[in-house]
Amino acid sequence: MKKKLLIVDDQYGIRVLLHEVFEKDGFDTYDASNGKQALSIVRDKNPDLVLLDMKIPGMDGLEILREMKKMGVETNVIMMTAYGELEMINEAKKLGALAHFAKPFDIDEVREKVKEHLMV
């Protein structure tokens, strides 16, 4: 059975890149550009892993993590950030995020982190 991966980022190019890479790697991939879409996909598709951008207009990554916790979701989460804000990263980890990586990123490192956290 294919692993399900949700990519949440407001930047279209990043969503497309990650979607294509992980689809080629054999994942069922979904993507969302905002928190409302992300939470709907989490509820409907129950992804095995979420790649979640820290800064998204409207509802940021921390708010999305909090909502996922309220929903009782136990999905693995890896945060993405272009800002490297240590305080936000630490808060994300307290909320259950497993890891993070900085943008711009090396796609091979991202693939390795995803596979590591999904035991693929």
UniProtKB/TrEMBL annotation:
<dbReference type="InterPro" id="IPR050595">
    <property type="entry name" value="Bact_response_regulator"/>
</dbReference>
<dbReference type="GO" id="GO:0003677">
    <property type="term" value="F:DNA binding"/>
</dbReference>
<dbReference type="GO" id="GO:0000160">
    <property type="term" value="P:phosphorelay signal transduction system"/>
</dbReference>
<keyword id="KW-0597">Phosphoprotein</keyword>
<feature type="modified residue" description="4-aspartylphosphate">
    <location>
        <position position="53"/>
    </location>
</feature>
<keyword id="KW-0804">Transcription</keyword>
<feature type="domain" description="Response regulatory">
    <location>
        <begin position="4"/>
        <end position="118"/>
    </location>
</feature>
<keyword id="KW-0238">DNA-binding</keyword>
<dbReference type="InterPro" id="IPR011006">
    <property type="entry name" value="CheY-like_superfamily"/>
</dbReference>
<dbReference type="Pfam" id="PF00072">
    <property type="entry name" value="Response_reg"/>
</dbReference>
<dbReference type="InterPro" id="IPR001789">
    <property type="entry name" value="Sig_transdc_resp-reg_receiver"/>
</dbReference>
<protein>
    <submittedName>
        <fullName>Response regulator</fullName>
    </submittedName>
</protein>
<keyword id="KW-0902">Two-component regulatory system</keyword>
<keyword id="KW-0805">Transcription regulation</keyword>
